Amino acid sequence: MEHILGSNWTITPAGGSTGEAYYAQTEGKRLFLKRNSSPFLAVLSAEGIVPKLVWTKRLENGDVITAQEWLEGRELKTEEMKHPRVAALLSKIHHSSELLDMLMRLGKHPLTPDEILRDLKENQKVLDRLDPRIEIHQAIKYLEKNVHDVHHDVHVVCHCDTNHNNWLLSADDRLYLIDWDNAMVADPALDLGMLLYTYIPADYWKNWLQEYGVVPDSPMHERMKWYSVSQALSFIQWHQMRGEYDEATIRTEKLKTIMKRHDIIK
């Protein structure tokens, strides 16, 4: 990274799952750098969903480096996820034809419940040798039983990881949703289910979803339930495959909470 910016810049790793993100600063200037970000980042920046894209550079080896504004700010607290502005920004994302067109041009096809279930089952066959967990098998049985009831013909750009630490509130009070590496074209219930069941008190759902722009019905609730379980299971598997067993255990407890709330297990 130093040879791109010059020796007067201080560059430090920014963490994250890919290890390809960095903070860079010099006198009066600060940037957030990332290697091989998706071209999708430019559209997200233009829509004001992520901090401003400053420049993009292609290296001789084919790698692409992007630089964004490095903003003073903080991640949202869990209790702040019920704020109407969270619902409004997620609605903007889900209703953006520009985002959807760009992601489709990048080769993303609508993700179906059948594909999600197939991938979860294939991964679990491998992981069972390492750490079989009864809750995971109960979750998969629930997903199998209901997979044919949750098909939906409306697909949008889904972030796929609406965890509170991916919501950035800047010092000038602007809200962003960052870390788009796992974005997919899918049923909006994929984002809504995990967010609502993780963060929003049940008695606040109606108000929150009105701010988002929908009046939920029974089929929508069933789809959100299905996707909240499938996404929780996906995160458990991801941590298991990385050898992060403590985090997998934490995620398993969250899965159990979701399943108890759904009366899938007692």
From TrEMBL:
Keywords: Transferase
Domain Aminoglycoside phosphotransferase: 14-227
Listed GO MF terms: transferase activity
Cross-referenced Gene3D superfamilies: 3.90.1200.10
Name of the protein in its database record: Phosphotransferase
Origin species: Halobacillus litoralis
